[in-house]
Structures are given as C-alpha cells and as structure tokens.
C-alpha cells in the first residue's frame, strides 16, 4: 500500500475500519504490522489522518468492549461473578421496589440469612423423620451409633430395638435413649458408663410461601431455617408486600407474626422462629406506606403500623440531616377526590398520623448567613467574618489584620443587598476610614472590596529581542536598566553587536498637538561586553530593546562536491565571492573519466528568508486549489526536500573562471560530476521506450526509429531533450520542417502526448453544415449578379 496514492475517501474508510476494531490512534503501528504495512508508510498514514482531522475519532477506542450476553456468568480475579444482567438497566418495577426501605436485604449478595449448621442444636428443636441421632456410649463400655429417624418416628438401637423419638426435643430424646440403653449396659445405673445423644445430619423440610412475595411457591429448606431464610430464597416481599406483617401458619393456625423492621431498626430477631415441615409463610399486603424525601438520612418508602406517628417514621429513616429545615414539613396527601398539600409544624410531628400514599418532603435550610460580612482584595486575611453589633468597615479591616502596602487608598466599594435583595454599591474613601475621618456601618451580607494599585493598571512589561539567549517579555521593575534586562534574558549571544543597541519607547502622558507626528521615541547607544554600566539607560514600562547581529559575524557555510573529482567531500566557503571554479581548484580538478557536460548543481529551495516568503505564499494559494490531501501531501514532501536542480556548464566555467557561467557558491550547495555517460533514455509516445547506447553519429529521429517510431498520439513538434546537466532543449520549427535538438551522452528524450480532441456533436454538425450551405448560396447569388 502506498499512502500517497490513496484518496481522502479511502483514508476515511480505513479509519472507519480501525474504529470498528477498537484501534486507537496510538495503536496504528501494531495494527499496521498485522496488516503487513511498511513502517515508512505508517508515518505517512498518520500524517494523512491528522490532515483530515480524523485522529480525534480514534481516541478512546482502546476501552474494553461492553460485556455481551454470551459473556455472562464469567469469573473475575476477586472471586465475584459478573453476569450479563448485572449491567442491564433496572426495570421500572425494580426501580420502584429499590426505594422501599428494607428491600436491599434481598438484593444484597453478601447477606443470605443461611442457617449456621455448625452451631449447637437449639434446645427447642424437635426431632422428626429424616434426622440423624449420634448416640455415644463411653466409660466402662464404649460404643457409638449413627441412627436415622424412620418415617414412623423410631430409631433402631442394636440389641435394644426401636425407640420412638418423633416430636421429642434433644433433651427428652437423651433421657429416653439412656433409659433404654440401661437395660443392656448395667454401668449406666452404677455411674460407670455414660450416654451422650447429639444431632448429626438434619432433615430437610418443605415450606410454602404465599401472598405478596417475589417468587411464591414451595421451597425445600434445612430444618434449622427461619422465617428470614425462607423470605430470602423467595426474593422477599414484592412491590405490594408488607415488611411488617409476615405470618407463620402451622396446622392451620397463625403461630407468630414477623416484623422485619424490628431487625432493621433494632437488630431484633426474636420472632424469627425456626420453621417446621409444612409451615406456611404468608406475606400480607401492606396497609400503610409513606415516602420520605429530602433532608433525612435514609430517604425511602416506609411502612407504617397502626398507631405509629410521623416521628416514628423519621426515626426509622435515621433522623434529620444536619442541614434539614425542621420548622415545617410539607406533605402531599391523596384525599377522596384529589391531592392536597399539608403543612406539618415541628410540634405536630410527634402526633401526626400518616396516611397511606403520603409523601413528606423535608427541606434544607437556606444557603444564607444571619450575621455574615465578607472582605476581599488587598488585605492580609480576606474571607468571611461574623457581623457584630454596630460593626463598621474599620472594625472589619482590623479583624482582617489591616490592608496591604499596595492597597489603593483613594476608593473602596461595599457590595450590598438591599431589603428586596437587589444589589447595590456603596463607595468610600479608604484613607478616611483608616484615619477615622469617616465611619461606614456594615449590614448583613455586605462584601467589602479593597483594590490593589497593581490590579488597577496594565501589567508593566518590557521586551527584548534579537541576539540574546532568551528573548521575550519580562516584568518591569523600578530602576531597571538595559544591562539588567540583558542579564534577565540570559546574556548576549555570540553574534550580538555591542554597537547601536536600540530602545523603542511608547509616547505616554503627552498633551495633544495636531502638528506632532511622532509615534515612538527611539534611543541608540553602545554597550560593553561585560555589561558594565556605560550607558546607564534607565528603562520605562513597555520599552522594547533590540540587540542586533554584528555585521562582521559570519557562521561557517559549507558546500560539497561529489563524483569524479580528485578530492571529493565537504568544503567551507572562504569568501562571499567564492565561485564554482574556486571550489574545483580546491578539489584538485576533474579526474580523467569525469563527464563535465553532465555536472549538476543542487541548491536549496530556500536560500534565505526573502526567498521563502514569496514561495510560501505561492504554495499556500496552490494548496488551496488542491482538492485531495494526497496531492497536498506529495507537494509538501517535494518542497520539504528543499533542493532544486540548477544546470551549469562546467566546461565554460573551467575555461573562463569568473564569467557569467561561474556562479557564486551558497551554503548547502552540492556539485555532482558523473562518469562518462554512454546511454540515452527515451520516454513518452514511442512504441518501445527504452535505454539505448549512445552513438555520436546517430541523430534524434534515428533514436526514435530505433525505438519503433512515433505513436499515433505523439506530438512530434513538442519533443524535447533533458541533458545530463539539467539543461532542456525543445524541437523548433524551421519553415515547414521540425528541427530536433542534438543528442548528447546521458540525455533523456521525451515525446509528449497530443491533447484530447473532442468531436462535433449532432447539433454542432448540423449547424456547421447549415452555415456552409448558406455561405455557398450567397456566393452563387453574387456570381449570378456579376454575370
């Protein structure tokens, strides 16, 4: 791929492909390597992308792709599971349920309420079919049994028989088992043998969850599971489910009512009883719900029991925040026909009875201060201060530790809010206030501004340019001299002239005079190399100092000569008048095999700043006409090489040193002298363009015939030759014949192509024919009259 051959549209398509592959601008190098694009072309590609301002489109593409559905349930390093549904937005129902106080218990993955099976068996736990009893006999006799409770409620002890334990607590089961074992182990009665009964693996129970739960149904749980465990596995109360009225129904009768708020508010799990097989957990619909918003610590939707007040709800919400406005709480209530707003005073909160659907808004205190005044500007401690009784501006300045030295004593301003809170300004004399001649009283929210003299004027600067190490602008200070500014600018450069140092000064504070045309004051003087006080020229604000280059200071300029000379290489120009012939003598002259007629001179495009100014303006106009950035890029590359071919006649230079052919040398000039050339190259509209051997006796047309002759599109009269030294000669017209230029070794023959000739359209042909016919008719008529 060659980038310069790509159009702008192809570049845009390439950038679009990079965007689809999440390739950023910084990753183009590695992307190009995968596409087998050479490194040299990658640099050009980046330049083209910048020229079209497409690099911004490739920023930020190195972000990881969004997790898709097929990437669901993947593990990450910290052990958590990321699922596709984790990154999907919540539905409206989920969002509404998330606002309900307590719902986070059933969406928190770190809280499961799973029963701890490693704890001692609760004393009130009753055995049933499926439980395992571990009977350990130790002492004078040693034996251990792991026995399952049968569906009929028995455990079968070896050599004892079945023992009924269904419905017994662990203590009751221990007493009964010990009594049965004493019949075969006599040491139990004598106290030499002991019996321990414990619970092994526990049974599973079936519990039915009904009512307003997220996922009602029948669940299999461990026999130690509680109400909270059952609620968690079912997803908890639904959108309309009560968090405070959860019943456990056993054998058709309610045995307890569980209130989740007891746990959320007080950490109390007293009513969180252990469930039994075939228990029914019923979540009743809520009766009263209200919503708290604004300045409470836990804004949410809360459930209210009968007899509870608004204060109880606020307590569940954690109380007020520090910036809450407690005097009035606004309530939005739904009555029988429409909505209404209720104002609840602070003393009514403890007795106010909430109604279902109420929304309470606790506002924040105003962002105002009852006794604040402010001071800013040229004081030592600006800021906010308390307004005291009969406080004046002088008192406030004293609290701010006084004014700074650069304070403007003439005038200061108080920005005040009037009674209707529209702004107003009061000015006073700072000098009179500080001296006690004037007393200015302060009001709440007053802002006193003390201005600095430095802020009330334009920044004073001085400028230095020319032959200093760090030219630019510098802050003006009093008693600044030229030598001081030179030191601030890093000193003089090696090329600096100590003569004719100029200072340009603004005309400031001068009375108007129509006849005065002066626009600046210019002083000129000399300085010393060590910057000792010779001129002692004091600077003023906005002065501009110019240090010029010494007229005798010249940096080394080098030229080079390559090819068939005795001593090729780089040479330093000795004089501004040094010519090509001088350089040839220094290089030892030509070698015997040198071809002097093919010598060329390569010279920089921009020799000096005056050369570049005109060319740059022309190129800018040319760039604006080009439509495709590829063309602009190619032209810029050609110009950036900054070398152009300059044809020279080395034979004339060597024969006549100092003549018009003998050019002065410029820095960066390169002279190249080839070996004797023996070929001629043919290009353009000939049948077989090729390179052929040069023969002195063969002419221009002979070379063309040897290459197959002219094609039908050849423009013969415009054929031209480019000689080895860069000189160009074209075909001339001599009477009715073409006079072709002479062919020399190393020449290149070019035959251009004819321009495209457009044929006549049908209408144009008819018009031309009609015109000829009309002209013929006129001629015939005239001839008839003459006769």
UniProtKB/TrEMBL annotation:
Keywords: Cell outer membrane, Ion transport, Lipoprotein, Membrane, Palmitate, Polysaccharide transport, Porin, Signal, Sugar transport, Transmembrane, Transmembrane beta strand, Transport. Its main location: membrane. It is found in: Cell outer membrane. Residues 290-323, 372-420, 462-509, 559-604 form the Soluble ligand binding domain. Coiled coil: none annotated. One of its GO terms (molecular function) is polysaccharide transmembrane transporter activity. The keyword Lipoprotein applies. Pfam families: Poly_export, SLBB, SLBB_2. It is a multi-pass membrane protein. InterPro entries: Poly_export (IPR049712), Poly_export_N (IPR003715), SLBB_dom (IPR054765), Soluble_ligand-bd (IPR019554). It comes from the Bacteria. Belongs to the BexD/CtrA/VexA family. This is Capsule polysaccharide transporter. It comes from Chitinophaga cymbidii.
